[in-house]
Amino acid sequence: MNLLKKAKGFWGTIVLVVIFSVVTQLLINGGTLNSFYVNTLFSIGINIILAASLHLIIGVTGQFSIGHAGFLAVGAYASAIITMKLGLPFPVAIIAGGAAAAIAGLIIGIPTLRLRGDYLAIATLGFGEIVKIVFLNIDYIGGASGMTVTHLTTWPWLIACVVITIVVIVNFTNSTHGRACISIRENEIAADAMGINTTFYKVMAFIIGAFFAGVAGALHAHNFYIIQPPNFGFLKSFDILILVVIGGLGSMSGAVIAAIALTIISTFLSSYPEVRMVIYSLVLIVMMLFRPQGLMGSKEITSFLKLGKAAKGGVHHDGKNTVA
Asked: Of all residues in the chain, what percent carry a pLDDT higher than 90?
């Protein structure tokens, strides 16, 4: 019965997403949404993928990584090479961008994920800076001047990637492997003592998170026409980290809501460049003072819906509703 309810809930959500996607596409085609709103919408989608992918690494597995922009850069440049240099289709570029970032995640994950806490953060920060410096010195991809990329990111591709990212990460989190990752987050020593291969699961989460960051990189590269190494520095990693922390560590719903809210705030504050970062910083400070656990804490939005149902109907007993 529970399985049937979950299936209904899943397909109901998919139907709503399809309706939203079709309506949005019609608004874009009809010119109702101008380029400003379309770019904001695309930025929200890309940030949702980035927030969800980092959520798996930090929120689910508890590994403090601040080099996520490095995977974004690898995916962006790998996909740009596929389309601009090799002339292959955009879908191939998306997969190649994700695969390249996943390989980078494997290479950096095996030696560094034996570290913990601040040491891991420093190692991943170093990785992100190394990636940026390497791309700065490769003439084949434009070096410091960057690489011009054709605009190929469309709304259907963006929403499809967003949905796939969320579905894969949520299902992974709810699987046996995801439970192992959560146990590592809660107490790595206890998880290791219980026979869980902590290094294996940390690397697995790192690879999956890196893959989807690479997918976001592919969408990013083919949306903004030009990519430059300085755009993928440690400040970009901190921007992605803020999305996860503000949303609530361990909450996918929180990461998605934070990505939407902060992207909108940042976009509309761009009209005030003098005070933009001041206002943005104040919003973050106020948030941390009054809601340090984040918007959703470690809960999902579905848990609040269940609470609402319980408050209305209570627990069923002999065909009647009782107060829980």
From this structure: 47
Q: Which of 62, 48, 73 is nearest to 141 (CA)?
A: 73
Q: What per-residue confidence (pLDDT) applies to 233?
A: 87
φ/ψ bin of 46: left (φ > 0), alpha (ψ from -120 to 50), beta (otherwise): alpha
pTM: 0.89
Confidence of residue 297 (pLDDT cuts 50, 70, 90): confident
In Å, what is the CA distance from 99 to each residue of 62, 80, 222? 23, 14, 17
Report d(CA 230, CA 225) in Å as an integer: 15
Q: Which residues contact 72 (CB under 8 A, 6 or more apart)?
A: 50, 101, 213, 214, 216, 217, 220, 232, 236, 240
3-state secondary structure of 252: helix
Q: SS3 for 150?
A: coil
The answer to whether the CB of 50 falls within 8 A of the CB of 213 is yes
